[in-house]
Known about the structure:
Blueprint: H1 2-5, H2 25-44, H3 48-61
Helix pairs in contact: 2-3
Amino acid sequence: xxxxxxxxxxxxxxxxxxxxxxxxxxxxxxxxxxxxxxxxxxxxxxxxxxxxxxxxxxxxxx
Length: 62
């Protein structure tokens, strides 16, 4: 069954197969750390309004 499903599949390449500089790994690290810190602050807070804002910010950064 799976063989029939993938019978016509073609090979695909990710953007990062050849590093071109479009995506900056340093910026990706900064964004990931921002998400991590936001989640830590989320878990440390009891303020529901803050938690809502934290989730919105995290989703924008992710």
